[in-house]
Design brief:
349 residues, alpha+beta, 7-stranded mixed β-sheet, globular
Length: 349
């Protein structure tokens, strides 16, 4: 088997966070599961679809635990490993914490892939973990029909720094730290229609650690944080709205996009997950008539290793935005606001 001719994406039926089950399906699967509330020290469980579980160790310290894995969205195994690791670690940052170690989750079709390719995937994941300052301390591997890679990540956080997706307050401003378009670029890549400069843009965004989340957790003006992944900006904003019992308004035209995202979306380069997302939660979203269908596809586009959605004091939003941009997130924008009202989303052009 030749690494140079084998397309990693050809071994999987989907890729990246576009593999996630649709929100409606996930809700059905979890409907009969017992609630975790009897455990008093479990501060964050499954109640609001938050990014990670949080367990209070003592008066001051919490442990954060999460896992994330998926099938390849790119053909370069090293890039796949880096993207999957960045995406998994993001959940800890989204809770306001810092990662301390990771465990590898590996499922590979060993009869279809050369061992060198699998090693490159693992090397990519280890490289990102090293960048985050954590070890890959172990893991588990199986022989599977399709390539799967990801991490289980453990982090810690002061109790006062935990930021849930359910803490948004009326009057808050909303900030998104990365541009949208990951799923659209992935769809174009699979069709062989993604230029090399666009691929470089994709990799730069999906391998950018959301480490700013740990800083946000220490800021009293930051009230809620979540990372934007497989459900798209609309899906994860809707989780914030429902968890916070507030209405969120998003200004679609203010959201940063990858350079070729709009053009590709207008050409129909969208994922099946985008359609599934809208079918799952579209009834809870008020979409202004002047928002065109191609832009709606961007708003439901699954974001593998996407940015952080932040609800913060409106008075400090501009200052916070400048700090986020200076920290290495040039695509960060103020994209909307939080209001009193029936929980849901209003999207304007």
């Amino acid at each position: 088997m030749d690494n140079s001719t084998l397309r990693l994406t050809a071994l999987a039926h989907g890729g990246g966070c576009g593999c996630k089950l649709a929100p409606s399906v996930l809700q059905q699967l979890l409907a009969d599961q017992p609630m975790s509330r009897p455990f008093a020290r479990l501060l964050v469980g499954t109640e609001t679809g938050d990014d990670a579980a949080v367990w209070q160790l003592d008066e001051e310290t919490c442990v954060i635990a999460t896992t994330d894995f998926f099938m390849p969205m790119v053909d370069d195994p090293f890039d796949f490993g880096r993207i999957a690791a960045t995406n998994a670690i993001s959940d800890v940052y989204a809770m306001g914490g810092k990662p301390i170690l990771a465990l590898a989750i590996v499922g590979m079709p060993i009869d279809k892939m050369p061992t060198g390719m699998v090693r490159e995937i693992l090397r990519g994941g280890s490289a990102i973990c090293a960048e985050a300052g954590i070890p890959v301390a172990g893991g588990h591997s199986i022989d599977s029909p399709e390539p799967i890679y990801g991490l289980a990540v453990v982090g810690t956080c002061p109790l006062s720094s935990i930021r849930r997706n359910s803490g948004a307050r009326a009057g808050d401003a909303l900030i998104l730290t990365k541009a949208l378009g990951v799923g659209i670029y992935s769809a174009a890549f699979k069709k062989g229609a993604l230029p090399s400069d666009a691929y470089a843009e994709l990799i730069a965004s999906t391998t950018l650690l959301n480490r700013v989340g740990a800083e946000l957790g220490r800021n009293a003006d930051v009230h809620a944080v979540t990372d934007v992944t497989g459900f798209g900006i609309l899906g994860h904003a809707l989780e914030m709205a429902k968890g916070s019992n507030k209405r969120l308004t998003l200004k679609a035209g203010e959201i940063a996009l990858f350079n070729s995202c709009a053009e590709l979306a207008e050409q129909g380069c969208v994922t099946g997950a985008s359609h599934r997302n809208w079918a799952s939660y579209g009834e809870s979203v008020f979409l202004a008539e002047d928002v065109p269908p191609w832009r709606r596809h961007i708003l439901t586009d699954p974001q593998t290793s996407g940015g952080l959605l932040i609800a913060c004091s409106a008075e400090r939003a501009e200052e916070l935005l400048r700090e986020i941009v200076a920290a290495g997130y040039p695509a960060a924008r103020i994209i909307g606001a939080v209001e009193e009202g029936e929980p849901g989303l209003h999207v304007t052009a």
